[in-house]
Amino acid sequence: MRSYLLLVLPLCLAPVAAIAADTDIREGLWEVSVQAEVGGQPLSATPMVVRQCVSNQSIQDLMAQTGGAGACRISDFQRNGNHAQWKLTCSGSMDVSGTGETDIADDQFSGKMDLVIKMGGESMPMAQTFKAHRVGACQ
Q1: Radius of gyration of the chain (CA)
Q2: How far is 78 from 138, CA to CA, in rounded Å?
Q3: pLDDT digit of tens for each residue in the chain (139 aa)?
Q4: Is 137 helix (H, G, I), strand (E, B) or coil?
């Protein structure tokens, strides 16, 4: 089950790219913490944490490529004040579809994604909660 998180964790970076492209999130090094459940079971007792440098170039790269899940597309992106929501579909070694939402405040944001993962003829629900904050400049 943990392998699902390793494959889908990069999906949390796609919203970072979408939000950054459409809002006032600053370029820089961001730390994203993700807690996930697959089939209602937590994948780990502690959140998985990744750091990602977001720049003008990497925003485009992240939208086109999100690791093991293959090519992802964000659609129906809507922002109302500090709240944003979107739909996500990915294809590749597994198909992923679902929705996400986030609340943005200064150099941080938090949110959730409700996904369905299809792999090897099986479907599995996945729920992710995430929070992120800007650590500083990219190195």
Answers
A1: 14
A2: 28
A3: 445 545 555 555 555 555 555 555 678 898 888 888 888 888 888 888 888 887 754 444 444 444 444 577 778 888 888 888 888 888 877 788 899 888 888 888 888 889 898 878 888 898 888 888 999 998 8
A4: coil
- Quote the pTM value: 0.74
Instruction: Tell me how far apart the alpha carbons of residues 30 and 36 are, in angstroms, rounded to a whole number.
Output: 19
Per DSSP, the residues of 1-69 read -HHHHHHHGGGGHHHHHHHHHHS-PPSEEEEEEEEEEETTEES-SS-EEEEEEE-HHHHHHHHH--GGG
Measured CA distances, 79 to 19, 23, 82, 83 (Å): 9, 9, 7, 6
d(CA 102, CA 17): 13
Q: Which of 134, 135, 2, 139 is nearest to 68 (CA)?
A: 2
Q: What is the number of domains present in the chain?
A: 1
- The answer to whether 76 touches 16, Cβ cutoff 8 Å, is no
Q: Which two tokens stand for residue 78?
A: 């809507």
Range of the domain at 19: 2-136
